[in-house]
Write a structure and sequence with these properties.
It is found in: Cell membrane. It is a multi-pass membrane protein. It holds the Pfam family BPD_transp_2. It contains 13 helices and two strands. The longest helix has 27 residues, at 201-227. It has a two-stranded antiparallel ribbon with strand order 1-2. Helix 2 (27-51) crosses helix 10 (237-250). It has helices spanning 5-16, 27-51, 59-74, 80-102, 107-126, 154-177, 179-189, 191-196, 201-227, 237-250, 256-275, 279-293, 301-311; strands at residues 137-138, 229-230. The protein has one domain (5-19, 26-311).
Length: 312
């Protein structure tokens, strides 16, 4: 329980948010967007923190999931129980197709290959004239759930995002604690030794890449419903950079750090943008200072405080 109290506290606060004066207006919408980005950041953490693969094209999987919603919406298929699996499957297939090449590399080469694939996906989305091209596509409405428009209710959508985020974190923990996860982490630390004991890192990394892609596709489906609009910017490398920064800001040592990083990133960005029109001049240095001085990221702050208290 010593390590579990922080994520439990965060999820408890998110669950209580609608009853703490945030149930009306745009604040609950912002929290939903933060949790969706937390879901996407969690999927990226499985690669960065779990497999040691730093991807700069992860937003492509988010965008593929979002454009799956667009394609089905254009075909008048709006049932979330159909749309969500299709979005996850589409993103996972994209991940397998691109990851078959990418996971055979590492370091800077992996970063550049994922960036290239991400930009290819971005320009492909921009060329889809039938889905709005550069101008994007406005959905006819949010997806239905079991034939009813539950997702249009802010409260229902909030708890749906919260439940899926919690499931992703728990699922990620279970995956990393399994035999598969132990091999994946061992390959991150010393791939040559893993090969020496009879395991090939590439298949394990490819499966992790596909799982991360599927989770990111689910986040894309939720983001498309949250905004009711999808554009090629969903796949841009800048969004991939944001996701990577969320993971680093939260801390690479723990899975829930990705959630903390996403929440801090989105809420700080939103707060500063309402405070000044030059908010980026404040936002950038604050993030850089956080990364430089928060050892272990936001997830490591309680440990730093505890050490300071013990030292007197």
């Amino acid at each position: 329980m010593g390590r579990a109290w922080l994520p439990l506290l965060v999820f408890a606060l998110l669950a209580a948010a609608p009853f703490a004066g945030l149930g009306e207006g745009y604040l609950l919408t912002i929290l939903a967007r933060a949790m969706i980005m937390g879901l996407a950041a969690t999927s990226l953490w499985l690669l960065v923190g779990g497999a040691g693969l730093v991807s700069l094209g992860h937003a492509a999987m988010l965008g593929v999931g979002a454009y799956a919603v667009v394609a089905l919406d254009d075909a008048r298929v709006t049932e979330a129980l159909v749309v969500a699996p299709v979005a996850m499957a589409a993103a996972a297939v994209f991940a397998v197709a691109t990851g078959a090449v990418a996971v055979r590399t590492s370091g800077v080469h992996f970063i550049m290959i994922t960036l290239a694939f991400g930009q290819m996906a971005f320009f492909t989305a921009a060329s889809l004239a039938g889905y709005g091209g550069d101008d994007g596509y406005t959905l006819y409405g949010r997806n239905t759930l079991a034939g009813r428009r539950w997702l249009e209710d802010r409260l229902v959508f909030h708890y749906l995002c919260l439940g899926l985020l919690a499931a992703a974190v728990l699922g990620g923990r279970a995956l990393l604690a399994s035999r598969f996860g132990r091999v994946l982490r061992a390959a991150r630390e010393n791939p040559e030794r893993v090969r020496a004991v009879g395991f090939s890192p590439a298949p394990y990394r490819l499966v992790a890449y596909a799982v991360a892609g599927g989770v990111a596709g689910l986040a894309g489906m939720l983001l498309a419903n949250a905004t009711e609009f999808v554009a090629p910017s969903f796949l841009a490398w800048q969004r991939s950079g944001d996701l990577l920064f969320m993971v680093i800001l939260g801390g690479l040592g723990s899975l829930h750090g990705a959630v903390l990083g996403a929440l801090a990133f989105v809420l700080l960005e939103e707060g500063l943008s309402h405070w000044t029109q030059h908010w980026r001049l404040v936002f950038g240095p604050l993030l850089v200072l956080a990364v430089l001085h928060l050892r272990g990221g936001l997830a490591g702050v309680p440990g730093q405080i505890a050490r300071m208290v013990r030292r007197g």
